Amino acid sequence: MRFLRGVLFWKTPHQVSICQVAGWLACGWLLVGCWAQAASSDDIDFQRDIRPLLSDACFQCHGPDEGKRQADLRLDISEGAYADLDGRRVLVPGDPKASHLFLRVTHDDPDQRMPPADSVRQLTEAEIQLLRKWIEAGAEWNEVWSFVSPQRPALPKVEDYQWVKNPLDNFVQSRLDQAGIQPMVEASRETLIRRATLDLTGLPPSLDEIDAFLNDSSPASFQRIIDRLLASPRYGERMTVQWLNAARYSDTSGYQMDGPRQMWRWRDWVIESFNSGMPFDQFTIEQCAGDLLPNPSLSQLIATGFHRNHRGNAEGGIISEEYRVEYVVDRVETTSTVWLGLTMGCARCHDHKYDPISQREFYQFFAFFNNVPERGKARKWGNSIPYIKAPTTEESAALVQLDNQIEQVEQRIVDMQSDTNQAQLAWVKSLLDGPQVNPASDVDDPLVKPLVHVPFSETKQSGTADGGTVDERWEGEPKLVAGRIDEAGEFDGTRFVELGNLADFTYTDRFSIGAWIQPHGEEGGAIVSKMKTDSENRTGYSFELVNGHLHINLVVRWLDDCLRVRSVDRLNPDRWYHVLMTYDGSRLFKGVQLFVDGTSCPLEIIVDDLQQPFKVPDPLRVGARGKHFRFHGLIDEVRVFDRQLSSEEARVLATPETIYEIVSLPDVERTENQRLKLRRSFVNFFGPEAIRRVHQELADLRSHRRLLYEKVSTVMVMQEMEQPRDTYVLKRGRYDDPAAQVSSDVPACLPPLSEGAARNRLGMAQWLVDPENPLTSRVAVNRMWQLLFGQGLVRSAEDFGSQGDKPSHPLLLDWLATEFVNSGWSLKKLQRMVLSSATYRQSSRTMADLQEMDPDNRLLSRGSRFRMSAEMIRDHALTVSGLLVERLGGPSVKPYQPPGLWVELTLEESRYVQDTGEDLYRRSLYTYWKRTVAPPGMMILDAPQRETCSVRNSRTNTPLQALTLMNDVTYVEAARALAQRVLNLVEANDSERLSHAFRLVTSRHPSSEEIAVLKSSLEFHRRRFESQNDEARKLTSFGDSVVESAVTTTELAAHTAVMNVLMNLDEAITRE
Amino acid sequence: MNPFYFHHRDVMNRRSFVLGASAGIGAAALHTLFAKDVGAAPLLDDENHKTGDSHFTPRAKRVIYLFQSGAPSQPDLFDYKPKLAGLHGTDLPESVRQGQRLTTMTSSQASFPIAPSIFRFAQYGKSGQWVSELMPRTAEVVDQLCFIRSMHTEAINHDPAITFFQTGSELAGRPSMGSWVTYGLGSDTENLPAFVVLISQGSGATGQPLYDRLWGSGFLPSKYQGVKFRSLGDPVLYLSNPPGIDGVARRRILDDLSQLNHIKLTEQGDPEIMTRIAQYELAFRMQSSVPDLTDVSDEPDHTFDLYGPHSRKPGTFAANCLLARRLAERGVRFVQLYHRGWDQHAELPERISKQCDDTDQASAALIRDLAQRGLLEDTLVVWGGEFGRTVYSQGRLTHDDYGRDHHPRCFTIWLAGGGIRAGVSYGETDDFSYNIVDRPCHVHDLQATILHCLGVDHKRLTYKYQGRRHRLTDVSGNVVKEILA
């Protein structure tokens, strides 16, 4: 009777009768999950007992993989299992001795016996007996449970309806009835509110919330708590963490350098979606294919960031296509894990060994994700294409406001047009009538003001924008000859000009370089450069003429890390051209423009892979690249700008005539460029103040808008190429070994795409959430269950295939799945229902006997109890200490981290610069995530690394965790803040303060025994710190937050030490 | 009486809470790699398929892996190619290159001029193995070493290549070699982690980055991940008590914590609480065992003389080699060193000299030191990088300067100690150190061989994840029997 003691002591409203227990014993279901020992032939379930066994032991060679199949025997489908192979029948229902499958697994000859002797997987005697019984009972075969669409099951009957609160409980209790176990009593009210608050918001309840709940005994009070929690913005933050792990979200790109990227706008989209209760089908479609929806909103485009969260390799020397293929594979693997619970990735190199997914089908699914206009070589620093600007609501509003203002001013300018025309006519007349102005100036538009100007003139000096002079140093004899504008420099392949370390641009700077050139002969040469040419890399920038083509080079390494382009068309020798290059700092081909004589010219790519900054200390030079590739011809009026000139400005620059010369021409003879130059000069410089002011206003507004827009964060998104890429089966999964071409489709073991569905990501996304899809709803509700109960009904949340775990409550899973779909895919409704159940509300207390009967709580015989996740533990500490700073969304923050962690693993460029002030105390989901060196406190507490998709965390219990929680400044500072918090209760005595702190940490009142321990602890630390005041000061000044000095340092330190005890309690870091 | 009441001793007596005979270390064993698996057989296959014993008689109990991150140049260190002498600056014949893929750093180079090593080679020891003048101390211990001159790999860039070496897959998410070994063989120490990582920065160049994943546990439970010991700050993260809390105060805090947790255990019955209590005790022991390990002040001067002057400076490769020996003495199963800075695309002669100055004496000293202490017999030492370097020059070639690009097709590593034949070379490359002409050794072969030395069949050390039994060597790998002692 030793066995029964715990149960009999169990004074619950639902007494277990001796009979029930005896029945349970007789039934012999001692251990859940040990079916093989338990099953009589009636109990054998093909799906639960036989298929996993065959899958595990036989499918490797006799499964779906055609390439590896032995002896033409296929055991994963009924056709194969009932086959007659040359007179030998694999399975003969009712007759094991005639069934060759059975004969081979029991064969005496080791060479004949299956599985082969060298196989890792061997059958146990119990398993062989199970096979025998199954065959004897008729060898009934049915499909993989998870590939059959869930049917809404009838509610099971239970022995006693008193406990049942909603339909969910029927399933749980009927299972418990079978096992002869009574459900557990309801948890205490403190536990209940703490559990629900942690589960739905990731934070503990406040004492006020607890007290209100304790004082509200109405039956609906818990329901109200649930509703309040579901409506809290914290809810979205809590749900988002799991999704970030699944989506492998990170603030860096992963691989080698692991440089930063910006995806937080997508992260905030997820928070907002959970908070607004976006239905899961919409949530799915927008993330998979928001860009393909009709007239997608900004929000729908941001949503597609999901499929760009994969890592990106920016390592020098990689072969781009190799990694582009990896990204597509990652999307397939992530999609199949997150929505389908399938391990499709296994079919990348060969047919799946266990599930009916062929290699061909893998690449058909791959084809959905293969049409993104992306590159395998990712950006080393920053987002990789394609990406979009993703203004926040506030930023959008500010931009709209500026746009309105700009529009108004533009309208005013239009309204003023006839006045302006008249004023301009009068001005032109006055010029013609009056004395000549600016006779030597070629450009009179003050807006076109260069950073550096080299006029090559007898009379004018080289200068800078701020009026400074430039020290011109000629290599070789200076030579000025008649030029485009007064004189020009003559370059004969020997001389060049050095101008000092000016125009020190890098790859994120906007800049422009313009000049008049007259090439002599075909030899060309560099026009302007700032480049280090004594190494092979040729780091820097240059603007050159090569074989008549204009080249623009932005270079870190000449062969691979650079943006090098050239004009499609050639210049002719021995005539003047105005040439202008502009660059927008985007590091992209499309960010470079070339203008010849004011007209934009087409460019072609030589190399388009600029990855790193290219600043060099070498001087700016005219007429040479470094000291090499010296120019042949004339160069005049070199201008370097620290901004990207507009096409209008390019036209003005290419207009050499002075204003005086232009006005001297009859109106009809003026060119368009001359008119433009005249107009711009007038409205910006020479016109009446009213006109100048409004144009200045417009310029200021545009500049303001540009600056604001530049600050707007970008986010990587999905796009579809107009011409989809061809997709091939890749032999052994290798990017450079294509076989048959395939087109996009879904695996044949699942329902087909609906008729007329687009065969693109949108069609695929709609297929995922088609109610006929047997997997998506089950996989989603299972993950929800895992979140609330610590483990899924299917424990292998990532694998619903034939090698995955079977559901503990298959009918419940199907009921929840259908309920989820019927409710309009509402996660909140589902969670409300689950939290309202008696199952959820059970106490998590356990005892030895119950542990033995249901060791892992697979039967849900009690409430679940598990250590909180990494981010919950930190957020809990920040909350109870009062340090938490709640602010929804925004760029990620860098809280405390031991110094040197990044640098010791990476390069100097990536140094962790810890934030200060409020950013130290934000919720953990906002902590900056560097994949290759993830936040240590999070990693020690089992957070996934986020290099790949993760839908199930491990939950370990290690001494490193103890060290972290005892010693990390995060937790010690929180202990001190908590100490301050209770010391602020001026009227209270020690016991009351300790009790208050205990409640803050655990949500419950301490027992007298517990208070006694804490009081004694406080006494000890008081005594110690009284004698060691320095120590007290050290402890209380650990952490950035300011010490409030209402109490003595000794008191604060002593309390801090005790709070350190409290915050390390098992109960403090456990959700129970 | 509280109906839920039962004393925690009752819990401990239950079979399901095995190993609880003495509260503390034993109970922890199920849950941590730190605890010695008292009385438990090594776990060699996944949880469903324990074999209960080593697969073979192990020759090594532990591994010290001296990983040279960035890829040391085999033609300048160990792969002697005298016939290149007359070919300086000539283009690498197409018959050698055979159109094999190159990194995009040099694939568009106009020519591939041969750069013979400027360093002199000589034969050393009774075994007469060729070593370059860059490695004089290593040359002195060649009779203890086994060179594999025919290593080859698949990846051509650092991140995938080093990930492949350390986890058996180019992609992230797989357990590292150290995790596999500790998962398979458990721990031999009660107060230290079973798998320790030490990192040093070379003086040759800014090193290639490293990544937590290289010692991560992948899909294995995270308790098998390597614990990085640091030279800056706490040797183990968060090891030290916060300022103002000394050992006495910490002990008191732990006692109070334990008392409160026991009250909770009694009330609650969750055996996980018992484990938690034990882990806190283990953490407390680590607070003294780790500093005891890293405090080398008890080492005599002649030890430092042996390892060289760098060994007195924490965080250097030499200091880490000394720590590796101390870890081996204390029963740590897998000690993984990483030394960065071998990625010499340019200015190779100057930079590689500095790298060798960092590593040569200390690597040799570790071999001598282990041998003197009788530890070399059952400690396997491995030295090498993630791939090799090209015989042709990357960038400008002068009479005394050149660079070398990545070269996965051949490179040299060495092994020594437990289970390995001493004083031999295995495999051979062509006259250009470009292709392998004799007995190639793939990364998976090396991994299989390392596991073999530890008494583990690489095909049977598996873990089921996503429905499949994974292993370190994926679906290939052959033990290199010729190099086994």
Unreliable residue stretches of chain B: 1-53
From the alpha-carbon coordinates, what is the Rg of chain A to the nearest angstrom? 37 Å
Mean pLDDT score of chain A = 91
Largest sheet of chain B: 9 strands, mixed
Q: How many strand segments of chain B? A: 17
Distance between the termini of chain A: 30 Å
- SSE-based structural type of chain A: alpha+beta
Description:
The complex is a heterodimer of chains A (1072) and B (485). Chain A has 1072 residues and is α+β, with helices and mostly antiparallel strands. Chain A contains 39 helices and 25 strands. In chain A, strands 4, 5, 7, 8, 10, 15, 16, 17 and 20 form a nine-stranded antiparallel β-sheet that branches. In chain A, α4 packs across α8, α15 runs antiparallel to α25 and α38 packs across α39. The two termini of chain A are 30 Å apart. In chain B, strands 1, 4, 5, 6, 7, 8, 11, 12 and 15 form a nine-stranded mixed β-sheet that branches. Chain B has a two-stranded antiparallel sheet with strand order 2-3.
Short synopsis of the structure:
Chain A is of the alpha+beta class and 1072 residues long. Chain A starts with a helix and ends with a strand. In chain B, the strands form 5 sheets. In chain B, strands 1, 4, 5, 6, 7, 8, 11, 12 and 15 form a 9-stranded mixed sheet that branches. In chain B, strands 2-3 form a two-stranded antiparallel ribbon. In chain B, strands 9-10 form a two-stranded antiparallel sheet.
